[in-house]
Write a structure and sequence with these properties.
about 550 residues, mainly beta, five-stranded antiparallel sheet, 30 strands, repeat, hydrolase
């Protein structure tokens, strides 16, 4: 039953909960503080003869007469949102057929529309969910306002024109700091134990099943040694495999391949290494490959896909597939490991699939040793006087001689992150970004829908602003985001940056030499003698031979 008409005038007051910036969040005061964004809004206590009732309070609102996807109920929050403060939003929504009948489920979004102080229009996603007309659904998300705004409104949008959008309640509060997860219990975890049953196929296909209507069979002629990455981690004998492999035929979809359920064998928060041999062939083994094929070991966790490792097979040789993954919570239903990827019609072969937990602390130490070997180089600084003779220590006391202080200014290892035009309005973000990265990838600003939101109306202004920022700071740019992460990864990044910068301090020896091993990159050296100080910059490039640098004092 409809209670009111179009939106009432703005009334300032508190909503449910003092920290909710949304006024009249459950419509207890009718349509006060709410308007329609390109449409009408109506207040209801029920619809369809009582079949649709409020989920929380006494009323809900319907956005009607929608002629575009962005139409919906909205509220102005200009005076109540603070810049550089993280908010979390929760909206309870539902669909309704404007002319009766049914409505197909579709995505509903909560969006923050912003007009900046310089007149730019920005649209920031708050949250989204798949919604139908069968039940109320909560969509949740977080939003950070970077810029100083002239106007800001939160609105509900998404469904096609002609579909009514119902809003039961909207809450937008300051986001609470996430509670750290308790330390995982790995006491009974057996590192190196393969959780794949019958990996060597001694019992035929026991434990295996085809994902999709493809055909599995066991054949000989496969590798007899573990892939190199597994050998390195497991330290097993040279020939642990028996040469058997699974041959997958009649594949009609890329996701088809051999699979196993490992739900009860998986420990949350443990890191699992993946290693396998894989091979592709034309259908029936008689057709040549037309193009390189992607082979992927995938992990399905409660129907969510996790990448366990992949390789691009360019011919019909055996390739090593390697990777790692970690499940961050206890699975609710099922965890499945499967091998997939090649085009439909391409045969897939898999041998010696290993999925085993690894000791992360030991693994990190091992990787640090590899890093020191691969990403560092020995450096010899030869300090000489004006006559070319070595500037050695005075007498036998090296501490009273030539002092050398080396500081690495930048690392040549390419390290990048995602940046968006909205981030540029946050000076703290820009300062952190430009100081800690040497590569940048744009979030959306070079995607077609961004540069040409309406046919024939092309604008690269946001991308130009980002490119100018990166160029001014000497950063390489890729046009589209390839990776994004959350807070814990950021903390790890800062730790790695400290580890990947080399600093050295000491005195030259009797031969006037100061030796150290440093990461590749740019350096600044300062040499102090009785006559004064001499500074110089130099670059440590990748090479196996030591870098010898002469410094005259």
């Amino acid at each position: 039953m409809a209670i009111g008409g179009e939106a009432a005038a703005l009334v300032v007051g508190l909503g449910a909960g003092d920290d909710n910036i949304i006024l009249n969040p459950e419509f207890d005061s009718g349509l006060d503080n709410w308007t329609g964004n390109g449409c009408k809004i109506e207040l209801h206590d029920s619809l369809d003869d009582g079949k649709v009732l409020p989920a929380n309070g006494k009323y809900f609102v319907a956005a009607t007469g929608r002629t575009d996807t962005w139409n919906g109920v909205q509220q102005d929050v200009t005076s109540r949102m603070q810049r550089k403060l993280l908010y979390e939003g929760t909206a309870t929504v539902r669909l309704h057929a404007a002319a009766g009948g049914g409505v197909s489920a579709c995505q509903v979004r909560a969006t923050l529309g912003v007009q900046t102080a310089d007149g730019r229009q920005q649209y920031l996603g708050v949250g989204k969910a798949q919604v139908s007309d069968k039940e109320w659904v909560q969509l949740q998300g977080k939003i950070l306002l970077n810029s100083t705004v002239a106007k800001a409104s939160i609105y509900i949008e998404g469904p096609p024109a002609g579909v009514d959008v119902l809003l039961d309640s909207l809450v937008v509060k300051h986001a609470q700091k996430a509670t750290p997860a308790p330390a995982p219990d790995f006491e009974n975890l057996e590192y190196g134990a393969n959780i794949i049953q019958n990996s060597n196929l001694d019992d035929g296909l026991k434990g295996w099943f085809p994902l999709g209507p493809c055909t599995l069979s066991v054949h000989g002629g496969g590798p007899r040694v573990l892939p190199p990455m597994a050998q390195e981690s497991l330290s097993l004998d040279d020939e642990p495999l028996n040469g058997k492999h699974i041959h997958v035929t009649n594949r009609t979809q890329t996701w088809m391949g051999p699979a196993q359920v490992v739900t009860d064998k998986l420990t949350p928060y443990a890191t699992y290494q993946v290693s396998a041999w894989a091979r592709v062939a034309g259908a029936g083994g008689g057709q040549p490959l037309q193009q390189p094929q992607n082979i992927n070991v995938a992990v399905s966790v409660d129907s969510q896909w996790v990448n366990g490792g992949q390789v691009l097979a360019r011919d019909e040789r055996w390739y090593e597939v390697g990777g790692a993954f970690r499940v961050e919570s206890k699975p609710a239903s099922r965890v499945m490991v499967y091998v997939q990827g090649p085009d439909a019609g391409v045969d897939l072969m898999v041998a010696g699939l290993q999925v085993f937990p690894v000791d992360r602390k030991a693994r990190v130490k091992h990787l640090k040793r590899l890093t020191d070997k691969v990403r560092k180089r020995d450096v010899v600084l030869k300090v000489t006087g004006g006559d070319g003779a070595a500037a050695a220590a005075a007498g036998n006391d090296a501490s009273s001689g030539v002092e050398v202080r080396v500081r690495q200014v930048s690392n040549s290892f390419p390290l990048g992150a995602c940046i968006m035009r909205t981030n540029m309005d946050n000076e703290d973000y820009v300062d952190f970004f430009t100081k800690n990265f040497n590569w940048a990838v744009f979030g959306n600003e070079l995607k077609w829908y961004w540069t040409e939101p309406q046919r024939g109306k092309v604008s690269y202004s946001d991308a130009d602003d980002l490119l100018r920022l990166c160029s001014d700071h000497g950063m390489c740019v890729r046009g589209h985001c390839i990776f994004w992460e959350v807070n814990e990864a950021g903390k790890r990044l800062l730790q790695l940056k400290r580890e990947w910068l080399t600093h050295a301090h000491g005195h030259a020896d009797d031969n006037g030499e100061f030796k150290f091993r440093g990461h590749h990159g740019e350096y600044h050296v300062e040499v102090t003698t009785a006559a004064g100080k001499v500074s110089q910059t130099f670059t440590v490039d990748k090479d196996d031979a030591p870098l010898v640098l002469n410094i005259k004092v």
